Amino acid sequence: MDPPTAPLDSTSTPNPALSTRTHTQSPFQITTRKLPILKAGPIDALAARLSIPIPEMIFGDNLVAIRHLPTGWTIQFEAEAALDTVDKTGEGGMLRVAYAREWSRSREKTSAGISEVVRPFDWSYSAAYKGGESKVGGRGLEVGGGEEIPVELLKRRDPILFADEVVLYESELDDNGISVMTVKVRVMAQRMLLLCRLYMRLDGVVVRVRDTRVYVDFEKELVIREYTAREDGFENVKRNLHMSGMMPDAVTIALRDSNQVANLLPVVEHSLDSVCLAEKS
């Protein structure tokens, strides 16, 4: 079974096969694909399927996938599936700020075909995305089992055999902040870690970090997925950065970097699930 693929615009370049990297660390295969921002036709089709306007920068053909070769079990990360987890009702804590309405109106006017599908939705694109899993024979990630990601093992300075970073989407929220989802992968000889991170900063309102980590132990054929959502008010985050000793200019720079902000935010949601894919004796 080939790695999952997303539909491509017939005019898209370069060739997706040339933009795909594959690394096999038996018994798993890791695939990453990086292609240009979608063009107008595919964007309109995507907006119609999702019933929401699309972020300014949408990498709809990008992909990161982990596949267990003996069984075909797969977990993959892609933009359309991520955006499909955005709240489309306006009832899930949607950010009700004045310029959200103006932003929707401006997108309605400038995006062909979008005016027919605009409905209340979380315009900050705060996706609660844990990846798409293809189970095999009923076997897949399940809550429980007591498995946690072994952080100390990941701190070891083992040689990195494969690494990549893939952007799924990005929006500047009409110059009022940023919402960006990226996927990073790092593969060592005995284990690997994938991090899918949403970083959303709405200036003057809120800062969010939503992380999905996928850890794989190649020898045990064990997969652990951890989801952590963090959130705090914008002014609280600024205050905490100031209290850490940063000058105002440094605080402004830090607010652009999720790595400097994430650990300052309280955890508001956390979950763990796992699966052992080794053949049962």
Automatic annotation (TrEMBL):
GO CC list: cytosol
Domain of life: Eukaryota
Residue ranges the record marks as coiled coil: none
Assigned protein family: Belongs to the TIP41 family.
Chain residue ranges for the region called Disordered: 1-26
Official protein name in the record: TIP41-like protein
Composition skew (Polar residues), residue ranges: 8-26
Protein's GO biological process: TOR signaling
